[in-house]
Amino acid sequence: MKKNFTLLFLFFAIISQAQIKGVVKDVNGKPLPFVNIFEENTYNATTSNELGKFELNIKTPGKHVVIFQYLGYKTAKQVVDVNENLQPLDIVLLEEEISLNEVVVNINDNPANEIIRNAIKNKKENSKKTGKYTADFYSRGIFRVKNLPKTILGQKLDFFDEVIDSTRSGILYLSETVSKVTFQKPDKLKEVILASKVSGNDSGFSFNSASSANFDFYENYLEFDANVVSPIADNAFNYYKYKFEGSFFTENRQQVNKIKIIPRRETEPVMSGYIYIVDDTYAVYAVDVSLTGKQMQNPALNTLNLKQSFSYNNNTKIWTKNTQTLDFDAGMFGVNMSGGFTYVFSNFEFPEQFEKKTFTAEVIRFEENANKKEDSFWQTIRPVPLTDEEVKDYAKKDALQEKKKSKVYLDSIDAKRNKFGIMDVLNGYSYSNSYKKWTINYNGPALNTSFNTVQGWNTSVGLSFFKRNEDKNTYYQFGTNVGYGFSDEAFRPTAYFSAKLSNKSKSYLTVFGGNSVNQFNPEEPISKLVNTVSTLFFKDNYMKLYEKNFATASFSREVFNGLNMTAAVEYAERKPLFNTTDYTLIKNDDLYTSNNPLLPLDETVAAIDRHNLVKLNIAGRIKFGQEYITRPDGKYNLGNDKYPTLLFGYEKGFASNNDNYNYDKVTARITQNLTLGNKGETGINIRAGKFFNAENISFVDYKHFNGNETHVSIGTSFINSFNLLPYYAASTNDSYLETHFEHNDKGYIMNKIPLLNKLQSKLMLGFKNLAVPDRKPYQEFSVGLSNLGFGKVRIFRVDYVRSYQGGFQGDGVMFGINF
């Protein structure tokens, strides 16, 4: 009986929803892609695919009026009788006749300017009409590659060999998302993803979401890698010129003006193309714009095209965005990619208010089994039909996926990748069992060899085991590492175990121990590579080291959303070290400084005495306003630049063999990255701390600051270190306040300066301050350029820095590499 009711329910569900299908072409029979198609005076909408094919779901039988709207073509109406004999439609659109006579031209003013002024004047009111809504959302993303090289910088590119053709071209990524969206301007979002599909991965989750499709031209800026100025922004006339190209009438006799958007300066974050403005209300009817990678400050990107189409509902008198496409082409290191996203919004509702708890920190939630939907589900809910290319990709990769899951296949792949070569002894080697999801890694000495004056040439080798659980997104690993110094003739082994216990609570456990050589500053401000070069070539041995035998354990987890806590305890025996070599590649009469940072000219006095200590650390991190995504395999936290991040900690040293070495310390830190419209970003990093009962503690436990004496910076720590401060000149066991400010103009100033704008660089302005007791405050002021380089490789940075401490101290040029 239950089965009969189920069949009856399915029968009524099928007959109560029909699909109007067909194809849209021009008069020459050319298919028209991404036509805006909707049922008149409703929010039931779809779009045609790349081949002009479309499907529109209709929930009730009878006659329905369907609108076909496409830029450059006359809008068409089609009355469709939805019944069991519904036949595919063949829609032909005629080219639009753009008339210049529809607008009175004032010889004293550009008519486009007046239209844009009115659009700016009325945008707040127009935006308010769609300020709160719920809608159904569909998106599809596709990435293609063409003539993929077999190697890049000597590394094989064989990951995609089975999914691309003989010309090394094909689809790399294809995915779809269906969701319910609740949105309130400017940025409150709640999205429930009902279905998610990734070609060739039945456990995958598509990264397409409504938040990534939220490009609102009524706002002043559109968020890309740089904030792009909207052509109807409050200050739009500072960035654009406009040309009136004519007007036309919609099917409901509303006049639409076609305005060409012309950037005043091509180097700025602006767009080119067209915006269509409805006369009288000055609402946006459609946009068709393009940007370059240079304008978006993304060197890998060549061009990006964004199109939006809006429809009008006579009942609500509201223009709503129905369809949007985002197409791109990019390339770097010989890899050429193209692709895009198709977005469809439908079934809008505009409530006057939402309930108080509608919007929470959970902005996206995947329903259970969202990635397990059958093909039959997708065939009934997909608003945009797949192309033949996409159908073949799903079929090919689904078949390949079944093959890839088999033990025979995975073993064959492992047999190929697990081959051992003689150079692997130096470079490292991995042995994998893909079926059981574990890997054994051997770290060779080639990338782990360096030089310092304590150990001389030193190297290390390591062996580790890693096993992952893909369903829960967890792992555990353990391993050992053995280092050897050729000058001090000492082996130093360590071993560790670490595990990610939960991807929902972000729980991690680590146990670590052994014998190691460490910098006095645990943040290691000077890298092994930079120290090796400065020591061997310039006899500047800035790295200062001590030895410890230790055992440590730590556990961290998210207590509740936004608050992470970590507890760690370490027992350590600390030992002093001395220089053991004066070897150099450049022979000169200069002497190396000692390994004592407090007495650099004394080789006989150690920086510390041998001692032991137990150290307890309790640390917390609060990300105010943290938002997150919930998936069946865990919780994924998102940043929120509107609010700062607060870090705090308590550190206690106890159980030392010398009571003078016991101490307490409290710390706090605030970080934030402020976006200032299109004027750039300001980074803030403020640290403070206070020691208690620490008058005679070991130098190891002092607060050490990230100085620099090499004039080279590698990495992204520009806002976490000083440029000219000697490494241990300000170390303290008392209180301290450290501030770093850096403004990145994102090209706002540099793009306006003739000739210099050709560099495509970013102006960097910095200020740093350090205050500790019994020492005059130390400041640095800097000005520099980043995003320097050649072609698309733009990883270099140059800064001029001046330092002050009770007066001018010195200046210098810093050279940075930011990967």
Structure description:
The protein is mainly beta. Helices cover 11% and strands 47% of the residues. It is built from 8 helices and 43 strands. It has a 19-stranded mixed beta sheet that branches. The termini are far apart.
Shape assignment = globular
Query: Radius of gyration from the CA trace?
Result: 32 Å
In angstroms, what separates the terminal alpha carbons?
A: 65 Å
**What proportion of the residues form beta strands (DSSP E)?**
over 45%
Strand tally: 43
Helix content: 10-25%
What would the keywords be for this entry?
19-stranded mixed sheet, mainly beta, disordered N terminus, 819 residues, 13-stranded mixed sheet, single chain
Tell me briefly what this model is.
The protein is mainly beta and 819 residues long. It is 11% helix and 47% strand.
List the helices and strands and how they pair.
Elements: H1 2-15, E1 18-26, E2 36-39, E3 45-47, E4 53-58, E5 62-69, E6 76-82, E7 89-93, H2 111-129, E8 132-146, E9 151-152, E10 155-156, E11 170-184, E12 188-198, E13 221-223, E14 227-229, E15 240-249, E16 255-263, E17 272-278, E18 284-292, H3 293-296, E19 301-313, E20 318-332, E21 335-349, E22 362-366, H4 375-381, H5 388-405, H6 407-417, H7 424-427, E23 429-433, E24 438-443, E25 450-452, E26 456-469, E27 474-485, E28 490-502, E29 507-519, H8 528-538, E30 545-560, E31 563-575, E32 611-623, E33 627-631, E34 634-638, E35 645-654, E36 663-675, E37 681-692, E38 712-714, E39 735-744, E40 762-771, E41 778-790, E42 793-804, E43 808-817
Parallel strand pairs: 1-7, 12-22, 22-33, 38-43
Antiparallel strand pairs: 1-4, 2-3, 2-5, 5-6, 8-11, 8-21, 9-10, 11-12, 13-14, 15-16, 16-17, 17-18, 18-19, 19-20, 20-21, 23-24, 24-26, 25-26, 26-27, 27-28, 28-29, 29-30, 30-31, 31-32, 32-35, 33-34, 35-36, 36-37, 37-39, 39-40, 40-41, 41-42, 42-43
